[in-house]
Amino acid sequence: MTTTAVRPTATRLGYVDNLRVLLTVLVLAHHSALTYGALPLWYWTEPSTSPSGVALMVLVIVNQLYFMGFFFLLSGLFAPGSVDRKGPGAFARDRLLRLGVPLVAFWLVARPLLSLQSWPDHRAEGSRSCSSGSPSVTSARCGSRRCSW
Questions:
Q1: First CA to last CA across the chain, in angstroms?
Q2: Residues in Cβ contact with 115 at an 8 Å cutoff, skipping those fewer than 6 apart
Q3: For a surface tag, which of 26, 35, 55, 136 has the fewest beta carbons within 10 Å of its beta carbon?
């Protein structure tokens, strides 16, 4: 006769999971609103001048005030327990893999691909004035043409 040891189940906080789902939906709504709202701050924009574009702009502005800070708050709340469980070295290595690898992949693969549409403009101008900087600075430098940053 064999017996198996019962592992203690970790208790999950349902309200935190629900909050994370809500914040993730807000991130999706935020990025959709960037594309179709009156603020041309995304890689591809279809700015609207109708009232719906202004409503989406208000959503982006209000949403930007809190949703990323909320994510940082949640991660900071649970980081000490993770450090205690894994140890500082393993925690740092895990975070570097989970956050660093996607960041490097974005910079080396996705960002150049997203900038392809603006390369002919840069080549004709002989400069890279629109390929770096914050969205507001880029918009101011590029004028009315569509830039990828």
A1: 65
A2: 131, 148, 149
A3: 136
**Pseudo-torsion of CA 131, 45, 99, 70, nearest 10°?**
130
Which tokens hold the place of 140? 């101011």
pLDDT of the residue at 136: 43
Poorest-pLDDT segment among 25-29, 35-39, 66-70, 72-76: 35-39
Buried/exposed code over 7-39 (b: 16+ C-beta within 10 A; e: otherwise):
eeeeeeeeeeeeeeeebeebeeebeebbbebbb
Query: CA 62 → CA 24, 26, 115, distances in Å?
Result: 16, 11, 28
The one-letter amino acid at 3: T
| Residue position matching structure tokens 């203690």 | 8
- DSSP class per residue in 26-77: HHHHHHHHHHHSS---SSS-----SHHHHHHHHHHHHHHTTHHHHHHHHHHH
Both tokens of 83, joined, read 């450090």
CA separation for the pair 7, 23 (Å, rounded): 31
Say how far apart CA 106 and CA 99 lie, in whole Å: 11
